[in-house]
Amino acid sequence: MSLFSSSSPAPAAGPASEVKEVTAATFMQEVIEASRDAAIVVDFWAPWCGPCKTLGPILEKTVAETKGAVRMVKINIDEPANQQLAAQLRIQSIPTVYAFLDGRPVDMFQGALPESQVKQWIKRIADAVGPTDASLVELLAEAKTALGGNDFETAASLYAAALQSDPTNVEALVGLGRCLLNVGDIEQARAVLAQIPADQAKTPDVVALKTALDLAEQTAGASGETAALQAKLAQNPNDHQARFDLAMALYGAGDKEGAINQLLDLFKRDRNWNDSAARKQLVQFFEALGFTDPLSVAGRKSLSTLMFS
């Protein structure tokens, strides 16, 4: 099946994302990293704060009108885990609202401003981002949803359409590369990776795609060895090389969870085997999947538990 089938039209773009509740644990991903693609407005609030309840809906409405040029998240400073973050940003009263762009804070205000002033402030932030093609934002959002649902044909069509508007859009290039990788077209995925500007090569999503491609090439053809390796482990569960090879074979066969579990088992049995090969390979798996992928999150938690047990 071709990823770029022209027999059916691309689906209409979906609605804008809802405002997220962010914590100190997700601040780096949802604010610092995300602000490289759009301005991120952070509303620091608490459930008991009356002015916060007045300001919040005004902010949400005004941000939505930017069509993706500005996005909004909320952080509840009553949560103990968020209090240190609030202290680092020197928040002494709420509501306090920060705007982040390109990984750093660029503006802020305190108190419940009138709607007219909120609109002026958001407009100033949106103008700092520059002109945004609303249709491009919607295409990328819909493509991300399709990719997350493993609908690689639809996602690839949408990413390709986005690249017609912006040929150097890194999110679209990475997304298209992921689609090609998932259908086994490693050569084309490499070609797409090569189009990413050099100054973006170290960003997390680009590094993750490169690592995933490296692993796909490394494990190509290994899936046929799973039965033999499982038989070897049945005879000798402490055959560490067989367990490591089985993890790689499972990864190549698409069983990412099984591959992670085999390496966790190996690490538990002998964490120092072959110069900590199990831990190093796990880190590569997590990087390839993306550190926010549910399998990575669960795997990293299990590895951390084993390391400190």
UniProtKB/TrEMBL annotation:
<keyword id="KW-0676">Redox-active center</keyword>
<comment type="similarity">
    <text>Belongs to the thioredoxin family.</text>
</comment>
<protein>
    <recommendedName>
        <fullName>Thioredoxin</fullName>
    </recommendedName>
</protein>
<dbReference type="Pfam" id="PF14559">
    <property type="entry name" value="TPR_19"/>
</dbReference>
<keyword id="KW-1015">Disulfide bond</keyword>
<dbReference type="Pfam" id="PF14561">
    <property type="entry name" value="TPR_20"/>
</dbReference>
<keyword id="KW-0813">Transport</keyword>
<feature type="domain" description="Thioredoxin">
    <location>
        <begin position="2"/>
        <end position="127"/>
    </location>
</feature>
<dbReference type="InterPro" id="IPR011990">
    <property type="entry name" value="TPR-like_helical_dom_sf"/>
</dbReference>
<dbReference type="InterPro" id="IPR036249">
    <property type="entry name" value="Thioredoxin-like_sf"/>
</dbReference>
<keyword id="KW-0249">Electron transport</keyword>
<dbReference type="InterPro" id="IPR017937">
    <property type="entry name" value="Thioredoxin_CS"/>
</dbReference>
<dbReference type="InterPro" id="IPR013766">
    <property type="entry name" value="Thioredoxin_domain"/>
</dbReference>
<dbReference type="Pfam" id="PF00085">
    <property type="entry name" value="Thioredoxin"/>
</dbReference>
<dbReference type="InterPro" id="IPR005746">
    <property type="entry name" value="Thioredoxin"/>
</dbReference>
